[in-house]
Structures are given as C-alpha cells and as structure tokens.
Design brief:
homodimer; 347 residues; alpha/beta; 25% strand
Amino acid sequence: MRAAIYEGPRDIRVADVPDHVITEPTDAVVRVVLACVCGSDLWYYRGESRHRAGDGIGHEFVGIVEQIGPDVRTIRQGDFVVAPFAYSDGTCLNCLAGFQTSCLHGGVFGGNGLGAQAEKVRVPLADGTLVPVPGSGHSAAMLRSLLTLSDVMGTGHHAVVSASMRPGDTVGVVGDGAVGLSAVLAAKRLGAGRIIALSRHPARQALAREFGATDIVEERGDAAIEAVLAMTHGIGVDAAAECVGTNESMGTALGIVRAGSMVGSVGVPHGVEIPVGALFSKNKGVKCGAAPVRAYLPELLADVLAGRIDPGRVFDFETDLEHVADAYAAMDERRAIKSLVRVGRTA
Amino acid sequence: MRAAIYEGPRDIRVADVPDHVITEPTDAVVRVVLACVCGSDLWYYRGESRHRAGDGIGHEFVGIVEQIGPDVRTIRQGDFVVAPFAYSDGTCLNCLAGFQTSCLHGGVFGGNGLGAQAEKVRVPLADGTLVPVPGSGHSAAMLRSLLTLSDVMGTGHHAVVSASMRPGDTVGVVGDGAVGLSAVLAAKRLGAGRIIALSRHPARQALAREFGATDIVEERGDAAIEAVLAMTHGIGVDAAAECVGTNESMGTALGIVRAGSMVGSVGVPHGVEIPVGALFSKNKGVKCGAAPVRAYLPELLADVLAGRIDPGRVFDFETDLEHVADAYAAMDERRAIKSLVRVGRTA
C-alpha cells in the first residue's frame, strides 16, 4: 500500500509499504477515504518535536472497514467509520469516565506503524475506537465534516468544555487555526452569548464570524488582553479556549479570563509555564489535555449528520495522498487553515 | 485599644494603639469577640513572607458592631457579625459572580492598619462584607464554629468546590492543617462518597475521621501517591483538595487525581511549579485562589446554626489577646491545629 512517511524535518515522502493487516483479534483494518494534516503534525514537520524517521504519520481519518479480527463485535466489514485520533478499549475506568485518551490499554495513531496518511490503517481495539456513520451516499461536504470529528472539531469542543463554559457566557478563543475555529463553532453550538476570536488573518476572521464569533480582536499579547478587557467591562471573559500551545497564547488566555474562571487548553504545550501566583490572585484555573474525541463523537456526529454544524469548512486546501507533502507545506506556510488529503473512494 | 502587632519574625507583641474609628461613610467598627491565627499567618511569622513591622495582624474575627458610618444600610449597631477575611462591596461584577476576593473595591484584613487580632476592627464596605448572625446566646462551641466561617471553613469548602467535586466522588485531601480538615468536612457535607485524608499526625487523623474521612494515608510524596493509587484501582481520586501551598503538596495532589479531574488549591503558593506536560498528558486541571468566603457564608452559616456541621472543632488551643504570641507559637511548633484568641465579651 501507499503511505506517507516521515524522513525528517520538511521531508515527507510517499512510499510503498506492506499492507496493514490484523495482528490482534480485536483489530480492524480500515481502508482510508479521507485523511488530513493536524496543526500538531507541524511540530515534527518543523523539527520542533521528534518523530521517528521512516515511520508513518497522520492521525485523522475516515474510511471503510475492510477486515475485522475474530473478537470484534460491534464493527462490521463495510462500515463507514470515523476514527478518533486515539484508540481505546471503551471499557476501562478512564474510558468509562469519558477520558479515552487516558485509556489503560490505548494509544494514538500517527506513529509506531499506525500512520493514518496511508491507504490502510490497522485500528487496535476496534469496538471501543471506531464509530460507524449511519446512512450512505454522503456528500463531499458531509465527508469533510465527518473527518473533522476525528480530531479537530472534538478538540475545539474539548477546549470549551475544559473551560467550563456555560450557556450565555462570553467566551474568548485564542488561536485562529482549525482548532481555534472549531472552538468558536463549539462555543456557539453550546450556547455562548458572545464569542471573541483572536485573529489577524482576514480569511480566518471571516470563517470565525461564520462559525459564530461576535467579535474579532486583531491585537496580540498584552495589547490583545487590553482589548478584550476593554470589551468586557474591564473584567474579562467568562471562559477562555487556548488553542495554540505556546507560552504566549497561554499567557493571553489567562490574561483575558475573568476572576474565578477557567482556561481550557488543548494546544500541545511547548515551553508553557503557568504563573501560579497570577492564578491564585484571581482564582483562575487551567485544564489542559488532548481531547477525548471518542467521548464527544456521538453528539457531534448527530449534529453533523443533521446539518446543524458544518465543521468541514475548516478545510481550505486539498490534495491527494501522492502530494501529501504539499498539504504539510501549505499549512506550514499558513497558506492553508487545514489540509485535506484524498486517499480512497467511498465505495 | 489593645492590638497584636508584628515586629518581626517570631516577634508578636500586644500594644496600645489608637481605637479604630469610622473613616469612610460605608465603614463599620466591630468590637472583636473572637479572633484566631491562620496557617497563612505563619508565613510571615516564620519570616518566609513579608509583613510590615509595626502593623496589625490577623484577618479572622467575629464580633459586635459598635458603630456604623452614615451610608451603611443593612448592618446595625449591636449586630453580632461574622467578617470574611476579605472586605468587598458586594455589588461589582466580580462580587456578583461570587468572587468577592476579586472585588474591584475590596481588600483584605490582616495588614495596612486592619489587623483583626485586636479589640476593634474597622470594616470597610460594611454592607457588602459583614454577615449578621441571627439569634443570641450562642454557646461557646457555636461561637467557635461561627468564627471558622471567617476563613478556614470557607477555604476548605472552596478547595472542594474548585476541585469540581460531585456527590459520590472519591476525594483526596492533601494537608492536615485546619484548612485540610475543613476540606474533609466540606467534602462530607457536599456528599463525597469516599474521603482520603493525607495525615501522619494522630490527633489530626482522629479529627479527620470525625469530620468524615473514610481513609487515612500516612505516607508522603511519591509514596503517598502510590498509596492513594493503590486504593483507587490504580486510577486516582475524582477530585483533590490541595490545602498546603508547597510544591510538594501540589505535586502530590496532581499525582493522586485521576485523568480528567481537577485539583482545587487554596494553599497560598510558595515555590509551586505546575508541570504543564503532566497535566496535558492526563487532562488534569488546577484551579487555585483565596476563597471567596463571603459567597459561601450564607449556606455554611445555615448549616452551622442548625448544628449540621461543627467546624469549630479545629480549634485545639486557646488563649487571650494578651497572650496572642503563644497562639502563634503553638501553631508554628505544630502543638496546635488552630489557635483561638479570646478578645472580648459577647454582650
């Protein structure tokens, strides 16, 4: 099969590798229809985090179940499925608590031979992991939205949930990448009263507004904090979603959130330091982590299928698997919000 | 009037100072009946934080309103009142949100001429700050419990609230000082299913059990974390209350809390660093700050007056104002959990 392979910083190739096959009785093998590139993929693409040379890459995909292991009970061959970026058994205490990213027997796609930017992916713990999509003949736009449920939409949702947002709240979103835009959409979906998006990029501002942002702040750093405070009676927002993962973005999120409120952070932290004294003086909190996308999939899937949300609009660059390197480059150079990778046919 | 004065580390004196008087029309002057020493007072007592030499000290008191300014509307002369350790207007956006410790016009007792270990205390913003206690002729035990509502009981409660504890949860409490013990009582009151108290001090263990602790862990540091994990299916507690404020206690609290859960921290932080990576990898969160005791006073007062909770049992040392230095020494040397200071008569 063909698969994207990481060879080193800014060196993504597509190669022939052995087909993924069932290795455990609880496995499934999924033939990938659509994959995509995540903002977190850019860390190793830019050489800012490590990834094993020669390993597969990518952790977001939808596809068709090609084969199941003998112990798989709820997933069937031919099912069209969304795969969350983490696999999980669905039965351990952490899964039952809704934190499948901390599954006692789980792991993540995107490395260790489980790259999703490939024609096929072996899915461990298929029953706990995969979510079949009802219906058939879904439109291209619908397929894109379904693909976002693999990571980015669930991650934006998680930022807002981790920030303890309540209906009617004023929410601040730091980060105008696909996750930040998804957080805007998630805040709107959950009933935010006002959504302040921090963005200086016209196309992203436009999509943020379409997703529900009521206000745009173009400033950065301290100027952004001042601008948001000026818009909120000097008090700050009721909840802040931190969707970048840098120390500056965390500082901005903590700066704009009001006394007694929470920052929900989903950006993989790089050099972030949390100023405990500043938190303590205003009763602020931080909750951060990789989204348990699997927990949110049923409710988000229902809203996507019903057309109530259209998160697939974050994709503004598209190519095929053979040109996956272009998909990375477009995001790296900020020409694209998020890059879609066409891999296989739906039927 | 007589008042405790800070002269330097381990040098607390009692001196004659000018009577506190009304200086703003929204002030009241309260004649103190009972005051006490807070664990946070030990930081400057030990020279580990700064306090101005010659200034008053102490921020917890109950007493009788002696005089009110012309703009005070809801507090009357002769009222027996509980004073939260922070004064607040009760009308600003932060107060209305329940975070009176971030009142836009507020401040705290315990310095800047507003020491509460004194015969009288000037109370700014009396209407927003003071809570009259209904009834009269309260017993000595009741008065002690009322005094805890000035800080320690509300602070223990806040730790549990900040940890997002839900009924039925298993709660871990780090710190067996008066705040930690109050957090045990608060967790019990709020319906915790299981309460694991970390303590190696027999008298404190006993009180923790009487307050509702179901399990005691005597270990510290990594051994404490291992012990708590062993008691919780290897997963950890559903919510953790950090009631010390050191880096070790924060590390323990973060170590014992399960994936996806919160640490509520009320110990004034000294040298605390929050390990962002460890938080992120398990979707853990921290919320920390000084308790908005004023917000919790009505509900806690009702339970104290009804005899449903008896938080005054944290006092196990008692003296009068002239011997207030002994009250500090007893806590400093860990001979006392919490020291009560008798100041004036109730009538």
